[in-house]
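FAQ

Q: What does a record look like?
A: Structure on top, sequence underneath. For example:
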């Protein structure tokens, strides 16, 4: 036979089905991604054709395109189906228009919030995510929809998304980027009043880039996705949105310019087109969208005749920056010359002074690199409010960025924390959802954070759910394992063993996440002999189901995957440990729910938050983790297990000890509890931990808790700050910029001349009020420009105050030499070594934090800090 010649299409497009008039409402349901977390709508689509539904990966758009017309004709005459369809559509319309939590919190709540993220994990149908950052962004939008928070999402539409993962015969990760046709996705191309596609331009060196805008409706939340694959763009510009996190520095910079600059312009166009309220708050989910600040500064300078500094104050007041990165290596840093090329002469992408642009991203702190432009540093400088994504990560971030606020204690660095959460309706399995609805009266569609009574769930019912979830996971794992081996080149005749791989009655450990080195995928293999004995224990075996992707450019991560795959390929253990390629949201839902134990063993404190364990906990899975990220604050000793950290030791010894601790917990705690059944065949001690996990973590790990915190602690204050500086003619911004300039110019004259507490020696008993007097020079500044504070608390061996308390001193006099006298009291509220000091800070009602300007005056070293021993 001759060689088969394949004809490759030069263009891909989608042919849509024409539904009977009575079924047209299915298109309305399919276009709104609320179906991805609404159980009744999912059930409705599945009932159209269950087999095709499975074949298309639960994708309503594909389903409607592949079901034969005859089936639709049948459904159009099926009164029961039509009744369900009518109810689903009516429910969606009620959901879109009725008031939710946000509508009841106050008339001065933010009118709208623009949320920028480089990736969104909303559903596996829309493959625009790589890992936790995107999944979090998707959960953020879904929860905003459920709570009625008026958010506009902004991102990029990657025509090849993130890669599909497969394995070579020897276990090496391989990547494939299948093309994506937006017309086959639940997206709508935005058009202007003339029907032409809405486009936004950005200026690149020597040319313009035009991007069209796709609307993805996420419940009540519009998500705008910018797409540079537009006729008229040159090939390099068309490829700007080719793939997520692809290309070199030039490519990434242009993606981030499109996200930030183009994203603001897309928001403006969308609001003008639809009448949606203009955002009062801008939220950057990581630093990739930082250039949105530059575009807003340009707008304000042009439209309101503000100076750069005045426009910056408006932007700062209304911007929130969320950092997810606990290590400097994870931050986008561009060569300074590249920024000059794009933002300086002759093109001037925004027409802003290049020196001011460069200054915002400059690493001016000790150890900083003057040759780079740091996107996280820019994010902190253009946002008045910033946060990490767990309590521990907030502390790590304050330490990592402390150089931007020299002379301040790390605790004063203005980076707060809001611990991440997950969207319960997306991640709670149908079986667990039905159980809590029936036994607790909780509807997770509307009450995702109400888990009261979970500790009283019936053992028999709870165990039945856990067994069903584990069995489904085993079935899914076998199916994916077979597909993987066939793709790796195995013959069907070699794969008979897969039908008995894994066991639905064996303790199952799940491990799935991205595969950078710090997450330590191979820690479990540290002592292979001991690990194998755990897997093959004749009485209490343990099985592992593992998944994860390494970045395409990370050969180190790929080697870790290969190491695990080669171990799992061994015929002696392959029935107890499997690696499943192409980890995505669909697999995550099955794996997080079906595993009995969720393993996480990062290097502490390099896990910013980690949300996969949250998803697992909502399904009754027990966490086994290093105390990092969210687990550090919410582990209570009974809702899972903590692997002791040895992060102070050399790498090899650390890994040996932490792996040994992992093995010990599995052998002596987890497995005995799991296999200890009573006369009714129920593992009561295990189920006690499951119930406690649901009751203790359920209300905390949900995104409704997270988003309420964002609204109340960050969005709402930012909106008020924006109104204070931006109302009317931006008088507040002009005043604040002028005040800051004056304070900075005059700060050299601010000094703490003398501090005295004359009766301290007679007051060393707990609860005593001690009077304090400070002499302060203010130079050219006024008393109203500053806040003079006493800082006091327990001290360490270096006389550093631990967890200080602060109290403002009151002005009592101005001396003839121009110095000012301040007095006040401090309460001796702690026993042991105690000390105090005085500091002077800039003070204005429009500041969000004492350290905002980075200015502070402290007593001279000769004055010292007074200490004593409080007993």
């Amino acid at each position: 036979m001759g060689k088969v010649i394949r004809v490759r299409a030069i263009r891909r497009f989608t042919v849509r089905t024409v539904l009977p008039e009575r079924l047209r409402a299915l298109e309305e349901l399919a276009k709104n991604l609320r179906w991805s977390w609404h159980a009744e709508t999912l059930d409705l689509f599945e009932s159209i054709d269950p087999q095709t539904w499975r074949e298309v990966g639960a994708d309503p758009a594909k389903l409607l395109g592949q079901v034969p017309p005859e089936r639709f004709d049948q459904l159009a005459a099926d009164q029961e189906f039509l009744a369900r369809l009518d109810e689903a559509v009516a429910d969606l319309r009620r959901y879109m228009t009725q008031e939710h939590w946000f509508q009841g919190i106050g008339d001065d709540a933010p009118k709208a919030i623009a949320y920028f993220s480089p990736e969104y994990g909303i559903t596996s149908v829309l493959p625009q995510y790589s890992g936790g950052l995107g999944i979090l962004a998707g959960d953020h939008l879904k929860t905003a929809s459920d709570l009625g928070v008026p958010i506009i999402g902004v991102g990029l539409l990657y025509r090849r998304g993130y890669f599909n993962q497969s394995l070579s015969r020897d276990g090496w990760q391989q990547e494939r980027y299948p093309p994506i046709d937006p017309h086959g996705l639940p997206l709508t191309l935005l058009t202007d009043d003339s029907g032409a596609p809405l486009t936004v331009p950005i200026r690149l060196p020597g040319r313009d880039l035009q991007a069209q805008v796709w609307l993805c409706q996420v419940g009540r939340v519009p998500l705008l996705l910018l797409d540079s694959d537009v006729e008229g763009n040159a090939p390099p510009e068309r490829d700007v949105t080719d793939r997520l996190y692809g290309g070199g520095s030039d490519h990434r910079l242009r993606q981030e310019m499109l996200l930030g600059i183009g994203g603001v312009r897309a928001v403006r166009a969308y609001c003008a087109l639809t009448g949606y309220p203009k955002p009062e708050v801008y939220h950057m989910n990581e630093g990739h969208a930082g250039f949105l600040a530059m575009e807003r500064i340009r707008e304000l300078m042009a439209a309101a005749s503000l100076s750069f500094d005045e426009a910056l104050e408006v932007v700062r007041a209304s911007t929130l920056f969320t950092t997810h990165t606990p290590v400097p290596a994870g931050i986008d840093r561009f060569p300074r010359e590249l920024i000059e090329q794009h933002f300086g002469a002759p093109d001037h992408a925004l027409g802003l002074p290049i020196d001011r642009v460069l200054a915002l991203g400059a690493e001016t702190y000790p150890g900083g690199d003057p040759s780079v432009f740091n996107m996280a540093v820019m994010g902190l400088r253009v946002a008045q409010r910033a946060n990490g994504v767990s309590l521990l990560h907030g502390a790590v971030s304050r330490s990592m960025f402390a150089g931007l606020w020299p002379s301040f204690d790390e605790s004063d660095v203005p980076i707060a924390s809001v611990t991440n959460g997950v969207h319960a309706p997306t991640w709670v399995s149908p079986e667990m959802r039905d159980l809590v609805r029936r036994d607790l009266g909780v509807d997770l569609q509307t009450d995702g954070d109400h888990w009261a009574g979970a500790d009283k769930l019936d053992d028999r019912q709870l165990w039945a759910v856990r067994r069903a979830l584990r069995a489904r996971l085993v079935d899914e794992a076998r199916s994916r394992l077979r597909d993987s081996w066939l793709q790796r080149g195995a013959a069907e005749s070699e794969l008979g063993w897969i039908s008995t791989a894994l066991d639905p009655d064996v303790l199952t450990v799940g491990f799935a996440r991205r595969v950078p080195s710090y997450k330590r995928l191979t820690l479990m293999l540290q002592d292979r002999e001991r690990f194998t004995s755990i897997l093959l224990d004749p009485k209490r075996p343990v099985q592992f189901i593992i998944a994860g992707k390494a970045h395409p450019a990370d050969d180190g991560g790929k080697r870790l995957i290969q190491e695990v795959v080669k171990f799992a390929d061994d015929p002696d253990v392959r029935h107890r440990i499997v690696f499943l390629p192409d980890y995505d949201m669909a697999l995550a839902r099955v794996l997080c729910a079906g595993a009995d134990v969720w393993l996480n063993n990062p290097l502490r404190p390099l896990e910013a938050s980690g949300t996969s364990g949250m998803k697992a906990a909502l399904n009754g899975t027990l966490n086994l983790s290093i105390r990092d990220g969210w687990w550090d604050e919410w582990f209570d000793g009974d809702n899972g297990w903590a692997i002791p950290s040895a992060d102070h030791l050399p790498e090899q010894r650390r890994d040996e000890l932490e792996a040994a601790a992992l093995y010990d917990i599995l052998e002596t705690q987890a497995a005995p509890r799991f296999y200890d059944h009573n006369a009714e065949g129920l593992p009561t001690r295990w189920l006690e931990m499951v119930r406690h996990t649901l009751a203790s973590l359920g209300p905390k790990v949900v995104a409704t808790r997270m988003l309420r915190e964002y609204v109340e602690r960050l969005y709402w204050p930012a909106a008020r700050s924006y109104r204070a500086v931006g109302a009317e003619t931006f008088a507040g911004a002009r005043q604040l910029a002028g005040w800051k300039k004056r304070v900075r110019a005059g700060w050299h004259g601010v000094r703490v001349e003398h501090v005295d507490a004359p009766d301290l020696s007679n007051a060393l008993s707990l609860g005593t009020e001690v009077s304090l007097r400070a002499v302060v020079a203010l130079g050219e500044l006024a008393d109203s420009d500053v806040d003079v504070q006493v800082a006091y608390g327990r001290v360490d061996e270096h006389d550093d105050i631990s967890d200080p308390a602060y109290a403002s001193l009151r002005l009592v006099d101005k001396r003839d030499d121009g110095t000012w006298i301040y007095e006040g009291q401090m309460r001796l509220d702690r026993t042991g070594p105690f000390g105090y000091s005085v500091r002077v800070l800039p003070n204005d009602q429009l500041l969000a934090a004492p350290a905002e300007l980075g200015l502070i005056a402290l007593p001279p070293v000769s004055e010292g800090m007074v200490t004593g021993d409080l007993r």
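Q: Is there anything notable about this one?
A: The chain has 27 helices and 28 strands.
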